[in-house]
Amino acid sequence: MSFTLPNLPYDLKALEPHISSETLSFHHGKHHQAYVTNLNNLIKGTNLENSSLEEIIKATANDSEKVGVFNNAAQVWNHTFYWNSMRAGGGGKPSGAIATKIDEDFGGYDAFKDAFKTAAATQFGSGWAWLILEDGKLKITKTSNADTPLAHNQKALLTVDVWEHAYYIDYQNRRPDYLDIFLNSLVNWDFVNENLNS
Ligand code: MN3
Fold first, then answer.
1. Above 70 in pLDDT, residue 1?
2. d(CA 62, ligand 1 centre) in Å
3. Of 65, 117, 135, 162, which is most buried by a Cβ count within 10 Å?
4. Ion ligand 1 nearby residues (CB, 5 A)
5. Which CATH superfamily hosts domain 21-84?
């Protein structure tokens, strides 16, 4: 099976002024596309050629000879998940089941927000911050480079990309400003609720 780049769930200008069409154009059209192209080249003619993306990620997560396959497969998956983690007019306090669960497990939205921002701000170098469900509890994690909750039997609910390519055009080195905007104006809580209920 050959993978194709999924379309963005909104148009390139949809997240402006918070994330520019220039950022989305490069990030989706160049970076995400490159992971798809690399993955297709790496699995061609191998025993992973007919596997799903999730199967490839799980099969290669702990295989030191398949690091390249894992990195590209996980980055394809992580980016699709990230696009869906945002929407125009998003952010702020959640509603629905996730709001209740955040109150139960973090003691309120503000505590969640502080913990998520801290994890994302303190990820050294490239990586991701996540809201996940593990053993029935919400947790916040951070992963380096391509690493993903899928490789750790954790259910991903929300992510933010903290590779510099995600924010450098719009925020330069100011990762904390990008994170504030993500939390206050971009989070797609409907997607988070769908993931929680799936
Ligand atoms: Mn990225």
1. no
2. 22
3. 162
4. 161, 163, 166
5. Fe,Mn superoxide dismutase (SOD) domain (1.10.287.990)
Q: Where are the domains of the chain?
A: 21-84, 97-197
| pLDDT tens-digit map of 123-153 | 999 999 999 999 999 999 999 999 999 999 9
CA distances from 159 to 63, 64, 115, 148, 188 (A): 25, 26, 13, 10, 10
To the question of pTM greater than 0.70 for the whole model, the response is yes
Residue-wise pLDDT tens digits, 185-198: 999 999 999 999 99
Domain at 97-197, CATH from 3.40.50.300, 3.60.40.10, 3.30.1050.10, 3.55.40.20: 3.55.40.20
